[in-house]
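Class, look over these structure tokens:
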Amino acid sequence: MLSSIYIGMTGLQGFSQGLRVIANNTANLNTPGFKSSTLQFADMFYSNSANGSKTMQVGYGLNTAGTMLNFEQGELRQTGNNLDLAVDGQGLFTVRDTGGALHYTRAGQFTFNSDGVMVSRVDGSKVMGQDPSGAPGEITIAGHQMIAGKATTTLNFAGNLSSTDTDHTVQNVKVVDTLGIEHTMTLVLTQSTTTPGTWSVELKDGATSVGTGTLVFSAGAPTPGTATVNMTYSRAGYPSLPLKLDFSKDVYSFGAGTDSQLVFTSQDGWGAGSLTGVSFDDTGTMVMSYSNGQTVKGVRLLLGRFDSLDAVSSNGNNQFDATNNLAWHIGTAGTNGFGAVRSGMVELSNVDLSQEFSDLVIMQRGYQASSQVISTANEMLQQLFQMSSK
């Protein structure tokens, strides 16, 4: 009967641990990236005793064999914050703490600290990336707050330059110089009175002529030799800027009265810009956006994944540690079995509340049954003592 009490106590201890695991899962129901766990139960060792030709095996109660993590993916929820990231598929973000140790997490709630380094909002761990050469390192926007301008090299035009028109002016022709300063110019086209289909081309910066050229049409299309007009924009004290006026695409000359529709469409230069936002694409590549409309790609997020649950353990702060490096792999999103990165989303906890409540009932009943065993064994002992005292 004493052994029955001890066996009942193992049940109380085991189901108490089970209740603790359920409580932890339930408490983290709304914790982003949280992975639930279950307690593994096992029976204790047995003793054998022989009774004639029969052997009796008697168990010694309940044993707990540790917890097992559930890495099933949780729901991905939109947040609107481009620095909230989630992995859709296999993979965990890699972070490095202040001591230099690497950890892994599915909770991609990141930000940039005052030094421009990407860190976890939970504990300030630095998020790790991989540069084009494959070398791991911090993800930083330091040195990327501004982007230099690019001078215009090509001006593009489109539309119909009426063959019956005598002259046409194209307004608001944008040119960016070598210092990133934008200039608004005017293009003046004048058809020759002696050679129909031949147009003189003059680009003007205010009243100053930038350069001139000739545009010739044959069968309504620019001739190959005149479809582009080259000139040089020169300003005192500034480097000369070669310009190419391109009429080779979507420019025609057909009879349409005296109304021409030739317009300026685009140019390939831009001014200097400041950083306005950072996001990540599906491959985990950092994309920096600037006020001049340009984007620049940076390093890629470094991800990790494991082959077996035996190779990972919980570390707290929504982080996990590698317990067997041979079973871990590092890489980038979309390669070698890694999932895609979703920007502006977080992965919610994968706790199944209905399952937890079902397990809670089982733990409660198990605890009550173990308690009843102890109570019954205690009553039997009391009766035995009463009998022996008579």
